[in-house]
Amino acid sequence: MWLLTPLGFAGKLLGAFRKQLSSLWGSLVPLLLWLRSAFWLAGTEGGQRQQGRKELKGTRQEEEASDDQPLTPTSVNYHFTRQCNYKCGFCFHTAKTSFVLPLEEAKRGLLMLREAGMEKINFSGGEPFLHERGDYLGKLVKFCKEDLGLPSVSIVSNGSLIRERWFKSYGEYLDILAISCDSFEEQVNVLIGRGQGNINHVENLQKLRKWCRDYKVAFKINSVINRFNVEEDMREHIKALNPVRWKVFQCLLLEGENTGEDALREAERFLISDEEFEDFLERHREVSCLVPESNQKMKDSYLILDEYMRFLNCTKGRKDPSKSILDVGVEEAIKFSGFDENMFLKRGGKYTWSKADLKLDW
Ligand code: SF4
């Protein structure tokens, strides 16, 4: 009884102040949450990444300070196959293996990339339409657009194996189709290793262009300027095809791919000087969709994944693979990618890459 009296008194006292205490607690909760997230952000990876992003927008000094921040795989080039039906003499990604990941494993890796911040995926090879006659590629394209909701899904292909039925099945999920075209003269294509035999290269390009329009896919052209096409004037052909972008690369040597002892190609005879490349660009200056890419700009400004989903580091003039993202995760693997995010931004790597935003007059 002697115990109940003070307890009862304390209970009554608490009851009297409960309303005031709960309103005080209510106003403290947001403040405490804010303080906790502020400290957490400052001390964790997420905070470092957010700070890194801000720094990218800031001064050059600030950009340098962000160099050791985790990289974001905003735009990824996935070379899921090395097999190709052509034999271009300067090929940068040769048929050293015939490996292709099982579809579900490839999807798992793509999901991991999306979770790590990927916004654009580009499927390349080898020739991406070769494996399972383009069905494997189509399933990945559909998965990336429909399941992952990626803003941009694109393909680079030599164009020789694409059929209209592919557009019927998968065209709606594709933002951009880039076709490699190094020359409009069949003889030059034969010299390069892109001879199409009975197929007329220009006619094939026009057919692909039409399908892109019919199925609402943005059409792009990629050209590698080399010893055999450096004198060519492509202005009229390019203007007639009217691509959204014409990417013009300077032929590049990569040890183990197109130069060196264990390479499958010897690309030295294809090389041109920086001046010759500049002359080519000057001749085509009036083509407004031209996007030039010199060796310097190309180097290290692409995030490249090989057929095992390993990032390929080109900083030493060859492709040194990281561990697979499927084994160690994106954040760990990307540290070995050699990716230069500043150069990626400087070369205009981020552009309007979703067909919804391109506002094309199909
Ligand atoms: S089409 Fe592309 S992947 Fe095939 S050999 Fe030529 S450069 Fe290499």
From TrEMBL:
Cofactor needs: [4Fe-4S] cluster
The cellular component terms of Gene Ontology attached to this UniProt record, alphabetical and capped at eight, are: endoplasmic reticulum membrane; lipid droplet; mitochondrion
Name the UniProt key words of this record, in alphabetical order.
Answer: 4Fe-4S, Antiviral defense, Endoplasmic reticulum, Immunity, Innate immunity, Iron, Iron-sulfur, Lipid droplet, Membrane, Metal-binding, S-adenosyl-L-methionine
Q: How does the protein's chain sit in the membrane according to the entry?
A: Peripheral membrane protein
Q: What is this protein called?
A: S-adenosylmethionine-dependent nucleotide dehydratase RSAD2
GO biological process terms, semicolon-separated: defense response to virus; innate immune response; positive regulation of immune response
Q: Which organism is it from?
A: Hipposideros armiger
| Species lineage | Eukaryota, Metazoa, Chordata, Craniata, Vertebrata
Q: Where do the TM regions start and end? A: none
Mind listing the GO molecular function terms for this protein?
4 iron, 4 sulfur cluster binding; catalytic activity; metal ion binding
